[in-house]
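Re: the 273-residue chain
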Amino acid sequence: MQDKSQARHRYSHSNSQGLYSVRDNPGYEIKSHTLNKFLFLVMPVLMTAVFIAGCVLGYIDYQNTAARSKSILSENEDYISPEDELRLYRVVNIANPLDRAYVPSTVVVGGAEVDRLIANPLKKMIAAAAKQGVVLSVKYGYVSYDEQHRLYEDFVEFLLSTGKYTQVRAESTANRVICDSGNSERQLGLLVEFDTDNKGEFDKTGAYQWLIRNAKEYGFVQRYTKSGEQASAMDRDFTLWRFVGRQNAVLAEKLGLDFNDLVDYVKKEYYSE
């Protein structure tokens, strides 16, 4: 009995003095509570700070990459921005007129004002033709709202002077050939009219044949064609060429598309939701 009592005593003594857990330390709960409170308050702040820092660094990297890409593209003189590209597909007619306030940023090429967007391609095309002995003489580029009205009225007067037209018929014919102000794509500055000494026979000149073979390489297409007369409500005109960009011009020839068909195709393929 004494041995068992001593054994119990030894076990009790050991348990209270030597075999206790750290959790039995009265200071443990205080330290643990303080640590948990610290982690509870600080960790969310640290995680948020890390997340924000990651977002900021990611954004900075994105901006730098975009800036580098834009710089590289802008150094290409034929680069067309997304905003400018949309202007390439703008159709102007009686149903989609321009107002007097529309004035593009222009430069002079070949003696005519043109939208700055087509300046370099037009210069290159004229120079390339000249190297092959072909003269591309630019008669008109950008035409202002008021100047277009003057051209329209002059043409109406010319038709009336022939004695073959009534006022109504003269105006109707003029609207299919030259259009009144606001209804002409000349005001865009993206349309170029080439001149020739062979009045009314530009299609029989070397200049026209050269354009048919090569204009697409510089981004130009014949604006008013026989196949597009119904859609454009304009008579075919061999002298008027519209800039659409090289890729689009090559595509138009490959698929056999006139300007209106090309615009419909591009909008459907790349801009429809």
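The longest strand covers residues 237-243.
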